[in-house]
Amino acid sequence: MAHADEVEVLHWWTSGGEAAALDVLKKDLESKGVTWKDMPVAGGGGEAAMTALRARVTAGNPPTAVQALGFDITDWAKQGTLGDLNEVATAEGWDNVIPAALQNFSKYDGKWIAAPVNVHSTNWVWINKAALDAAGGKAPETWDEMVVVLDKMKANGITPLAHGGQAWQEATMFDAVVLSMGPDFYKASMIDLDPAALSGDKMVEVFNRMAKLRSYVDDNFSGRDWNLASAMVIEGKGGMQMMGDWAKGEFLKAGKKPGVDFVCIRFPGTQGAVTFNSDQFMMFKVGEDKQKAQLLMASAIENPSFQSAFNVVKGSVPARTDVPNDAFDDCGKKGMADLAEANTKGTLMGSMAHGHAAPAAVKNAVYDVVTRHFNGEMDSAAAAAALAEAVAAAKG
Ligand code: GAL
Q1: pLDDT digits (tens, 9 = 90+) for 220-236
Q2: What residue's CA is closest to ligand 1, atom 7?
Q3: What is the band of 1 on the pLDDT scale with cuts at 50, 70, 90?
Q4: What is the pTM of this model?
Q5: Could you tell me if the CB of 108 is within 6 A of ligand 1?
Q6: Would the CB of 227 count as within 6 Å of ligand 1?
Q7: 241 vs 207: CA distance, rounded Å
């Protein structure tokens, strides 16, 4: 017999830091009498999880709640497969405390369909403190300063850039490199998908920078999981990792302290702007027997103290604007302040790599070109031309 209050949850939080954060949610629900049925699908960025989800929905048996990003949520909503959280959302006033940039994905047709658990951002660099000290001690603020630090790390005999060769990881770095050419350029190319921006000189320069970064990775980078790249920086074998703030979860899990063992900076040249992605639990239409637990889960996720407890561990920042920053470390406090600043300045933009800039077809077209260029299959001019073409075809 199924438990009266059970939620089956599909997610890709399987690394050490991710699992620790997930545990906060699991325990919170268990304390409210909701049983957790786990459906983990490993693979950073969630591509494999989305494939598993399609199979479940096709079989007519969707899980209760599914971790999902941006436009993927809208796609499922369009197909009429998602439930309705308005009863809880209205009673708890979600409209007033969840930023509009997130609501764009959590709501469809006036209905709340997903509960946002956090806000991550992709334009971060995580640096081993001792390796930085050995390379002059000053965190880079510009692209040129970063190249100097990377060169020194190389001369010091470590792998300057810890990277995992998977398309989504290259795309995550690409988010930051595009943003380093200016927020207007990020918006024109990644959000508006303007062909001139996608194929022009600035995009060629973006690819030149990607090629430069490629020269700092080790020989074994191909296929490496992102958390193993984080481990290289944690252990001092790698100098830095360019990755979203889920990487912080790995440093914390390993007992490392910001400012002492590692340093977090915005990707040089992107200060004042944020490319974000928000993990949300989209809720599928389920039978009446499961609705109570589903609503309980949605409500638990939006609870302000849960938002604090969870995001402190995950490396992200709260999805609500009214959560105090007291419990967060310096990187978390910076993340919250940066988000608020970018939101005010109009420089808060969705991450292409993590499904918040464009629908999956366009995202996958970007992945393909970025990863082929990174692996030396084409030069920078050819890559910019291919990018514009691939995006135009994917847009349909
Ligand atoms: C992101 C997700 C994060 C993190 C990362 C690596 O797409 O938003 O929560 O888990 O993938 O798996």
Answers
A1: 999 999 999 999 999 99
A2: 45
A3: very low
A4: 0.97
A5: no
A6: no
A7: 18
